[in-house]
Amino acid sequence: MSLKKLSIKALYNTPSVDFNPGNGNFFLTGKSIPENAIKFYEPIAEWLSRYIKAAKEETNLHLNLEYFNTASAIWISKIIKILSKIESMDKLLIIHIYLNVEEFNELEDDDIKDAIAPATDVLSEATVSIGVKIYGIDDAGQVTNEKLILF
Predict the structure, then answer these.
(1) What's the total number of domains in the chain?
(2) What's the average model confidence in pLDDT over 117-129?
(3) Residues 6 or more apart from 138 whose CB is under 8 A from it?
């Protein structure tokens, strides 16, 4: 049985989730401050655990979160850890991170490394090739700058 698309509409405290196993594009968008992070994120993690068994050649995780709390950060790290276990170095995982353009423009390379440090701890045990793209977006949500980091 093939994996069905995972879609969850955004609420005032949870992001929209649009995970399409058919094309390998996964989007978390909005705010993530759920009252019960386990209840929100655990089904997503379970879905991803099934996806990695038959992952696409390229998987793109888009994190366009304007705000997230500590509990969400822990679950986002878990999501990245699950995806890093795609069982083929021939496959590619790209993590897309969207920041306000002012924040993006102020980032030095060391700041970028610090910002993605929680993910890099997870990525050291990865079984898939991984890249991180960081985007600067303006107030209209348009990408104005980007940087690519390969691991």
Answers:
(1) 1
(2) 66
(3) 101, 144
CB-CB neighbours of 115 under 10 Å: 15
Q: What's the whole-model pTM score?
A: 0.87
Task: Report yes or no on 1 lying in a domain.
Answer: no
Provide the H-helix boundaries in 8-144: 37-51, 70-83, 101-106, 109-115, 117-123
- 32 located within any domain: yes
pLDDT digits (tens, 9 = 90+) for 66-118: 889 999 999 998 999 999 999 777 899 999 988 888 777 777 766 666 666 65
Element (H, E) at 7: strand 6-8
What is the structure's pLDDT at 5? 97
* Structural domain that includes position 36: 6-150
In DSSP terms, 18 is beta-bridged to 7, 27
CATH value at residue 95:
3.30.750
Residue 23, sorted as left (phi over 0), alpha (psi -120 to 50) or beta, turns out to be alpha
